[in-house]
Amino acid sequence: MVSNPCLCQNGGDGLRVIRTFGVAFRGLWSYPVRTWLALLGITISTLLVVFLLAVLFNFKNSLVGQIQNVGVQQIVVMPGKLLNSGKNISEVNLSSLLSYTSVTSTLTYQDAIDVKAQIPEVAGAAPQLETVTRIAGAGKSAEVMYTGTMPDLANMYSLELEEGRFFTEEEAVQEESVIVLGQTIKQLLYGESSAIGSKVKIKGIDFEVVGVLKEKQLIGFTFNERAYTGYPLAANTANLQNASMLFFEAQSPEGLEAVRQEIAKVITKNHGGVQDFGLMAPEGALHVIDTIGNLVTAIALGITGVSFLVSGLGIMNVMLLTVKERTREIGIRKSVGAEWWDILLQFLLEAAYISVLGCVLGLAGSYGLLHLLHSFFPVLTTLFPLQWVAGCLLFCVALGLLFGIIPAVKALRIKPIDALRYE
Q1: Which domain holds residue 39?
Q2: Residue 45: CB partners within 8 Å, gap ≥ 6?
Q3: What share of the chain is helix, strand, coil (3-state, %, to 5)?
Q4: Domain check: are 29 and 142 in the same one?
Q5: Same domain membership, residue 376 and residue 329
Q6: pLDDT digits (tens, 9 = 90+) for 233-286
Q7: pTM flag (> 0.70)
Q8: Does residue 227 contact residue 180 with C-beta atoms inside 8 Å?
Q9: Measured in Å, how far apart are the chain's first and last C-alpha atoms?
Q10: Which helix H or strand E contains 66, and what residues bound it?
């Protein structure tokens, strides 16, 4: 195909530039198969990188949002410790965090009671132990996470009830056989019927159902497959005396570090001066999420970014073939007065067209896949920041210009007399 040779003879420089855009577009689609293959490379590269970044970003955003929704006044005590470190989790880097070692739990119900009694700044305390067992009721049975705790847990995690109530402090202390079912367990046993007042059997004991929780889950944790009863009764029936973890809620977010230190002192004293546990407040969890998120993102970018290099080489290969096949056209344009920048701009624009269009298709595919993933995992958000779109488009323009410069320079070096002889 030979473009209009009079392009450079008519109008001013502005009109010539505008016409060059059209010439570049027509020239590019003179070879549709080759163009689509180059487009496919950029599209796949953009799709991989942007979709992966979007998933990581939204996963991190979901975690942070859920932690913030729970509140910033919670302190969690877990079995384990940072080896050879006097720091808490929120103060360490990732390499130190990897030295966090879990140990057999020595946490107890009494630890939680003593902390709440001795530290005025602690508004709530909820020890928790758990074991997987079977629950039977209404002629059906299911596996359940049998969980012992105290009523303060419901306030800490904003557990809402679909029907009934949560058990009381008095019921827990007196080991009354009352239980609160998670939504999944209730549906498995009772379907759409009310469960309040009915009896379920766990560990050979008949429990009265006093409440059913609304559906609620956090990433990596669900309340729906659990059945909650008082800690003392659960400890005795499950033959578990040590808590899996302790939950505390401070009166206010101010001075949270001081409260954490006081909690550590009380529990350490109970354990004979040994701190065989770790404490984590929301900022500690956010620190861990941010550290791991940044590391995974960097690794992902390094791996998927190679695909952009391969796609750029594909663009350069396509453009080199284009220059070779259009040698005669280039000679005609130069012979009728085309300036060097006319030729340079045309081939740079062709490379930029490929990269930008491929980027747009990749962004659209990433957005669609993110929403498709959300339909399977509703807990994952679907944020797609506009700055990503702008940044990706700018990057792809730069990529097209970078890998289009060599073919464009090659076109500039073609002498008109040699080009006119070219067959």
Answers
A1: 5-65+288-421
A2: 304, 307, 308, 310, 311, 358, 362
A3: 55, 20, 25
A4: no
A5: yes
A6: 999 999 988 999 999 988 887 778 888 889 999 999 999 888 888 887 666 666
A7: no
A8: yes
A9: 13
A10: helix 32-70
